[in-house]
Amino acid sequence: MERPRTVAIVLAAGKATRFGSDKLSALLDGEPLLFHAIRAARAAPVARVVVVARPGLATGDWAGAPPVEVVRLASTALSDTLKAAIAAAADADRAFVFLGDMPRIPQGVAARLAAIIGTGYAAMPRHQGKPGHPVLLSSRAFPDIATLTGDEGAGRLLRRRGDVVFDDCPDPAIHFDVDRPEDLDRA
């Protein structure tokens, strides 16, 4: 059987209104917050990484494999960002969705999701019963993403499905995102 073509998506086009400034360029451990998410996406078992970023956001230079592609998007609506990402990954059998403001995704989570998705609609890590990130979407989810509007992500789609597979993760970092400057101190 042929291995599935898997892409990682990093969503990085949001407004960051709670942060008060350019959140994804804020430094964490000496580098922009976004770079941590891109590195986590590159560590996933993927053929390529697609970063959907707002115009002007520094996305870095990423030599080596897997390659990193950048799609620029003026809209900050979550649904538009996700739709642009899925359009860029249309040739894939499945796509990981990473968020640009989640810098501490544990190593190995993505590989475990890839191993358990099977014929499921999606696979997600969860800690203490609460789903987290990244999310691995099968290509069956791609048409449903096109129905999203405004600041709606895939959460509604995933909650109504009975064929989402979960990986119980011992690390609460699957929930940690940076919303405010003080969150960088907790990272």
What topology does this entry show?
Blueprint: E1 6-12, E2 27-28, E3 31-32, H1 33-43, E4 48-53, E5 68-72, H2 78-88, E6 94-99, H3 109-116, E7 122-127, E8 130-131, E9 135-138, H4 142-145, H5 155-159, E10 164-168, H6 181-186
Parallel strand pairs: 1-4, 1-6, 4-5, 7-10
Antiparallel strand pairs: 2-3, 6-9, 7-8, 7-9
Radius of gyration, CA atoms, in whole angstroms: 15 Å
Instruction: Please bin the fraction of helical residues.
Output: 10-25%
The low-confidence runs, each spanning 5 or more residues with pLDDT under 50, are none
CATH class wording: Alpha Beta
Tell me the overall shape. Answer: globular
Tell me the quaternary state. single chain
The count of domains is: 1
Order of helices and strands: EEEHEEHEHEEEHHEH
CATH topology: Spore Coat Polysaccharide Biosynthesis Protein SpsA, Chain A
What proportion of the residues form beta strands (DSSP E)? Answer: 15-25%
**Quick one: how many beta strands?**
10
- Largest sheet data: 8 strands, mixed
Domain MobA-like NTP transferase: 8-162
GO molecular function, one term: transferase activity
Keywords: Magnesium, Transferase
Pfam families: NTP_transf_3
Overview of this structure, please?
- This protein has 187 residues and is α/β, with parallel strands linked by helices.
- It has a single domain (6-186), classed as Spore Coat Polysaccharide Biosynthesis Protein SpsA, Chain A (Alpha-Beta Complex).
- The chain has six helices and ten strands, in the order βββαββαβαβββααβα.
- The chain has helices at residues 33-43, 78-88, 109-116, 142-145, 155-159, 181-186; strands at residues 6-12, 27-28, 31-32, 48-53, 68-72, 94-99, 122-127, 130-131, 135-138, 164-168.
- Strands 1, 4, 5, 6, 7, 8, 9 and 10 form an eight-stranded mixed beta sheet that branches.
- The model has no long low-confidence stretch (mean pLDDT 91).
- It comes from Novosphingobium soli.
- Pfam families: NTP_transf_3.
